[in-house]
Amino acid sequence: MKKLERPFLLKNVIKNYEWGQKGEKAFIPNFLGTKATKNVPYAELWMGAHPNGPSKIKLENQWIELGEAIAKYPKEILGNSKKELPFLLKILSAEKVLSIQVHPNKKQAEKLHENDPKNYPDVNQKNEIAIALTNFLAIVGFKYKKEFFRVFERYPAFREFIGKEKIEKAKKASNFCQIILAELIRKSKDEKFLSETIEKIALQIKKEKKIEEGKIFLQLKKEYKLDVGPLFFLLMNLIRLKPGETVFLPSGILHAYIRGTIVECMSNSDNTIRAGLTPKFKDVENLKKIVSYKDLELKILEKNSSFYCADFSIAKIKLKKDEKIRQENDSLRMLLITKGELFIEWGNRKRLFKKSQAILIPAILGKFTILANTECDFFEVK
Ligand SMILES: [Zn+2]
After folding, report:
1. Is there a catalytic annotation at residue 274?
2. Residue 97 has pLDDT above 90, yes or no
3. Which CATH number goes with the domain that contains 351?
4. Would you tell me how many other CB atoms lie within 10 Å of the CB of residue 7?
5. Closest to 105 (Cα-Cα) out of 85, 82, 128
6. Residues 263 and 324 in one domain
7. Could you write out the DSSP letters of every residue in 352-373?
């Protein structure tokens, strides 16, 4: 399999979802060194073999989909008994908030797919990790219990919406989030009551000093009319990542990205259950079952660390000029260069790669060396 014993440049798919960054400052076209088309949102760049946006590699002088190449040479490319690439790597660049969502675990995913294959195309679980490339704002998981209930004291209109009795009942329960979540979803079917409540909270926020939480609430209200999302937002943790910081989102943790750019690595799955802030399909019944209610420990990792989960590991590596690392492959790796240039050396050959390029290193390549041609930063996923 000599033809596979080399690194491959990946040709990747850009997703133009409406929440993506637009114009001259949009991250993705700047990163790729291309000119942004006017009024086109640049939301995501996908690096992987997912059928909704497969990367291509050049094999025997032809660009073919990565999934097709893997199907032809699974052992040579993946290096194990698996049949599919277990992860999907993305750059995600948000100007507007994304939907509030949660992803199922393996067991839940299998069940969802069986009952509703149209909305749940995969049988896979979905773990996600987000590593900030710019300042990044997100909401992740529910607030700790004390803080959670303080929200109803702070916003009387919200307290009225849920009902005092329900709140008192929830306070005594260990599954307090579930009780409130169910009530929030039930009450929000009354659109008039929902919009009045959101208006009242907005009015209160405008009168008070402008804290960041308030500003974001108003932004959500403006972007998504008649949506339960702004109320969810008040009950969740607002997190700010600086470039290089990381948050891990296991299955079951409710989350939404607000703005900024990240490298996102996830299990190769598109299974998403949406709760709000979206015109897309919302599956509130399954949401109630899948959201995990335990207190969330936020893992914000520093730079130069690696992260492992069931489906992949990702490392952020920084090399000085002329620094090298020797690698021994036993499985597929993917590199994404975010700064500088590097050589990949194998056998007696070498090839130069540079910023913005994503590289597939098939398992069969065996031993190889990464040599920094300039100072460089890259992500390595395997
Ligand atoms: Zn997600």
Report:
1. yes
2. no
3. 2.60.120.10
4. 22
5. 128
6. no
7. EEETT-EEEE-GGG-EEEEEES
Number of domains in the chain: 3
Domain boundary among 286, 308, 330: 308
CA of 103 to the centre of ligand 1 (A): 6
pLDDT, residue 103, reads 85
pLDDT digits (tens, 9 = 90+) for 219-266: 888 887 778 889 999 999 999 998 888 888 888 888 999 999 999 999
Say whether both 248 and 110 belong to one domain.
yes
Q: What is the pLDDT of residue 229?
A: 87
State the Cα–Cα distance between residues 109 and 23, nearest whole angstrom: 37
Which amino acid, one-letter code, is at 57? I
In single-letter form, the type of residue at position 87 comes to F
CA 81 – ligand 1 centroid, Å? 28
Please indicate, yes or no, if residue 233 is contained in any of the structural domains: no
- Among 274, 290, 308, where does a domain finish? 308
Query: Could you tell me if residue 234 is inside a domain?
Result: no
- Residue appearing with tokens 């259950």: 273
Question: What's the gap in Å between 119 CA and the centre of ligand 1?
Answer: 15
Range of the domain at 336: 313-381
The phi, psi pair for 268, rounded to 5°, reads -75, 80
Question: What spacing in Å lies between the alpha carbon of 271 and ligand 1's midpoint?
Answer: 9
Torsion of CA 161, 163, 168, 169, to 10 degrees: -110
Question: Among residues 154, 240, 274, 326, which one is catalytic?
Answer: 274
Measured from the Cβ of residue 143, the count of other Cβ atoms closer than 10 Å reads 19
What is the enclosing helix (H) or strand (E) of 135? none
The answer to whether residue 195 is domain-embedded is: yes
- Is 232 inside any structural domain? no
Q: Distance from the CA of 31 to the center of ligand 1, in angstroms?
A: 23
Same domain, 38 and 105: yes
